[in-house]
Design goal:
Shape: globular
Radius of gyration: 18 Å
Strand content: 5-15%
Number of helices: 11
Structural class: alpha/beta
Largest sheet: 6 strands, mixed
Strand order of the largest sheet: 1-6-5-4-2-3
Distance between the termini: 43 Å
Number of strands: 6
Helix content: 40-55%
Length: 213
């Protein structure tokens, strides 16, 4: 069987992809608010999953607050090395920021073992110590325990999230952890339900970074 491929130059593939995404959104009768569209379309571009056009939930001014934090050089904290690898650190560095992930740190593993918790939860506790109260963007794409611990520490005043990207994927405690954030006063972008992932977390961070040039 002969397949006819669309002729697209390498440097035009992403632009063409975004055009096709917009065409399909139009065909589905989905109109995205202009401020949210770049984030939603970047996630669809990463996943090829149009469910995100409906299940991404944004708190009031979430995008604006995230942009302001990144523009001011905020730290991005991820819950996985995969999300950390996916964040465009060159774009982040141009703004004076950095991306951190503590999941592989030996002291985090030791703390989790001692406390009987997960490394993901312990990594958020370490983030609170390292940040020392400085605002940060948290991109949680895998571990609901990280999201739940983030919520608890924020409630205690030990963390000041400028934005919480809450998109862990899975079945156990995933929906419940997301609901904690959805019902909180924390600025957030949350993928309702079970869907998400480290790639989605990184995509949302990058969508914000690309808005800043």
């Amino acid at each position: 069987m002969k397949v006819q491929l669309e002729r697209v130059l390498p440097q035009e593939i992403e632009q063409r992809s975004m055009e096709l995404i917009q065409q399909e959104l139009d065909a589905r009768g989905i109109t995205l608010p202009p401020q949210l569209a770049p984030v939603v379309k970047r996630v669809i571009h990463t996943t090829a999953d149009f469910d995100y056009a409906r299940n991404l939930a944004f708190s009031p001014q979430a995008v604006e607050l995230g942009l302001a934090a990144l523009k001011a050089g905020a730290t991005v904290v991820t819950d996985t090395q995969m999300a950390h690898a996916g964040v465009n650190k060159r774009a982040l560095a141009r703004l004076g920021g950095e991306a951190l992930c503590f999941m592989s740190d030996p002291d985090v593993a030791a703390q989790a073992a001692q406390a009987g918790s997960t490394r993901a939860a312990a990594s958020i506790e370490k983030a609170a110590r390292v940040l020392g109260g400085r605002p940060a963007v948290f991109a949680i794409g895998n571990a609901p325990t990280a999201l739940a611990r983030l919520y608890e520490l924020a409630e205690e005043g030990a963390l000041q999230p400028a934005l919480v990207i809450g998109v862990p994927v899975g079945f156990v405690n995933v929906v419940e952890a997301k609901e904690l954030i959805l019902q909180s006063r924390l600025p957030h972008i949350v993928a309702r339900g079970r869907k998400g992932g480290s790639n989605v977390a990184a995509a949302i961070v990058n969508a914000l970074l690309y808005r800043l040039g």
